[in-house]
Amino acid sequence: MEKELYFAGGCFWGVSRLFSLIRGVKDAICGYANGHTVAPAYEDVYTDSTGHAETVRVTYDPEVVSTGDLVRVFFASIDPLSRNRQGGDVGTRYRTGVYYTDEADRELIGPIFGSVSLSLGAPVVTELGPLECFYEAEERHQGYLEKNPGGYCHISPKSFRYLALCQDLKALLGDETDTTARMANAAAMIHFRMKFFWTGFYIACGEELVLGPFQGPEACFRIRKGKGVCGAAWARNEVIVVPDVESFPGHISCSSLSRSEIVIPLHSGDGSISAVLDIDSDRIGNFDEDDARWLRLLVEII
């Protein structure tokens, strides 16, 4: 049985394209939602006077992709702390929201909103509520990026690569229960798909992080809690993005070729940190908030 969920995530061209690439999604239709003007034209919505948000109706097979997975992908693709702005697009028509037609979906989606707020350390400004109305957009907006491959898209190209990686990694790991095996294949897939300099895990053991499965040149065996980027991410329980490792106080240099870094904590069932995913690049400024959002999603899968 097919289900529907509605996502407002900025310009609907990119949102539609992103969701159309998810396995189990039947279609992703651009439209205008939850405003007060009946059957508005794009030119009307563009004035921000209709109350509508550019929204995508996602029809999907819940046997293939869950409601929760769709919402998690959505949060990885937007800035949930930005009000009425995504990328360079500004206006109430670009506000973010998740709108449902089945009240039972709220119970599934609500905890994800809470989890995202907790991980970001601030409440998200993304709306969550029932769909009040939806009007399909003009034909020229449907499948816009398929028709215009070089057309404008506020979603970064690497977000599309991360989406494919998330889906393939989830399929690869399947129901494997051994943590080391999961980390080993995850490190390999992330490393070679995204072409990073170093990708690996450090396992929490007492007051130290101990080197786990990785891809790349040799690395430090142990890192004390609070030391370096990995130890700081562990101590602070937060994702740390470092554009230039030489500017990070107390940086531990395992390789002189590492120039930028991102570290993401992994949590056990009781909420404690069991490990960190450490990724290095040989280029300055290689990581940003897009990487942080998608890598949070990846560690949930791992």
Question: How do the strands and helices of this protein lay out in sequence?
Answer:
Layout: E1 3-9, H1 12-20, E2 25-33, H2 42-45, E3 53-60, H3 67-77, E4 85-86, E5 89-90, E6 96-100, H4 104-120, E7 127-130, E8 134-136, H5 144-147, H6 157-173, H7 179-194, E9 198-205, E10 208-215, E11 222-224, H8 228-236, E12 240-242, E13 260-267, E14 273-281, H9 289-301
Parallel strand pairs: 6-7
Antiparallel strand pairs: 1-3, 1-6, 2-3, 2-8, 4-5, 9-10, 9-14, 10-11, 12-13, 13-14
Strand order of the largest sheet: 7-6-1-3-2-8
How many helices does DSSP assign? 9
The helix/strand order is EHEHEHEEEHEEHHHEEEHEEEH
For this structure, the quaternary state is single chain
Roughly how many Å is the radius of gyration?
20 Å
Percent helix range: 25-40%
The parts where pLDDT drops under 50 for at least 5 residues are none
Arithmetic mean of pLDDT: 96
Number of strands: 14
Cα shape = elongated
Strand content: 25-35%
Task: Quickly give the structural class.
Answer: alpha+beta
**Major β-sheet profile:** 6 strands, mixed
Write structural notes for this entry.
The protein is an alpha+beta fold and 302 residues long. It is built from nine helices and 14 strands. The chain has helices spanning 12-20, 42-45, 67-77, 104-120, 144-147, 157-173, 179-194, 228-236, 289-301, and strands spanning 3-9, 25-33, 53-60, 85-86, 89-90, 96-100, 127-130, 134-136, 198-205, 208-215, 222-224, 240-242, 260-267, 273-281. The strands form three sheets. A six-stranded mixed beta sheet has the order 7-6-1-3-2-8. It has a six-stranded antiparallel beta sheet with strand order 11-10-9-14-13-12, sandwiched between helices. Helix 3 (67-77) packs parallel to helix 4, helix 3 (67-77) packs antiparallel against helix 9 and helix 6 (157-173) packs parallel to helix 9 (289-301). The radius of gyration is 20 Å and the shape is elongated. The protein starts with a strand and ends with a helix.
